[in-house]
Specification:
Length: 256
């Protein structure tokens, strides 16, 4: 159910099992990780993730799961989490176009993506109260960071789902678009990023992850920025950017 399309510097990964709302079984998670690995080996400079049909991803495919014999740690801890880590560390800017249900592992896919554009039809939250389960795949961390503890637990306890507009207004994701526009808008943004200074973009991506994960203060973050800037001085794109500015012409970047 995972389709990978390589088009020059841009990769598109599509979840393609619309009959199941793109819910992910174990093999689909493995295939998703393999698609990202293949795109990385191809040296693409940007990636778009999207879902076919009525939903982006409704989470784990539990249709055939027996709760009396469910290896949830094998699915989440040994399989999903490593793939999400590889997605988050992808060596180029990543974008997601999300519509309809974005739940459970589906929400985790968005959390592991650099820039997320959502449709006004998106449904984001914690539907697990009806299953006797809990929010997973990084959902608690995202919600507490952006919404606070009280609003997080309100969503958990009630099962209420946020619309795309509510999610963007709360700072969960980047921008909201009509459902029939979100994929084109996302692809356009990714295509422009793929022709940009992607080495510098990846430096910012790593800085953002460091700030988030290590909670750096002002001076520590400034030192990290300084080191990143010094490393970029040795890149062709850095020299091209300065030369283009000084010559008053548009830069031509190659991501190196």
């Amino acid at each position: 159910m995972i389709d990978l399309h390589l088009d020059g510097d841009l990769a598109t990964v599509t979840l393609d099992d619309p009959a199941k709302l793109n819910a992910l079984d174990e093999q689909a998670v493995r295939d998703l990780g393999a698609a990202y690995d293949e795109a990385a080996r191809a040296g693409v400079r940007a990636l778009v993730l999207s879902g076919e049909g009525r939903a982006f991803c409704a989470g784990r495919d539990i249709a055939a799961v027996d709760p009396r014999d469910d290896d949830v740690m094998g699915y989440l801890d040994a399989l999903v989490t490593p793939v999400l880590k590889r997605m988050a560390a992808f060596p180029a800017p990543t974008f997601a176009a999300a519509h309809g249900a974005c739940l459970g592992v589906g929400l985790g896919l968005l959390i592991a993506t650099d820039v997320v554009y959502v449709a006004d039809t998106a449904k984001i939250g914690s539907p697990f109260a009806a299953l006797g389960a809990t929010l997973d795949s990084g959902g608690h961390a995202l919600f507490v960071e952006r919404l606070g503890a009280h609003r997080t637990l309100d969503l958990v306890y009630t099962g209420r789902l946020l619309s795309g507009a509510e999610a963007v207004a709360a700072g969960l994701f980047s921008q909201v678009f009509p459902a029939d526009e979100v994929l084109a808008r996302t692809t356009d943004a990714a295509s422009r990023a793929a022709t940009g200074a992607t080495a510098a973009f990846v430096a910012s991506k790593r800085l953002v992850a460091q700030l988030r994960d290590e909670r750096l203060g002002l001076w520590a973050s400034m030192a990290a920025e300084n080191a990143a800037q010094a490393a970029l001085c040795d890149t062709d794109d850095y020299r091209e950017g300065f030369a283009a500015f000084q010559s008053k012409r548009p830069p031509v970047f190659h991501g190196r």
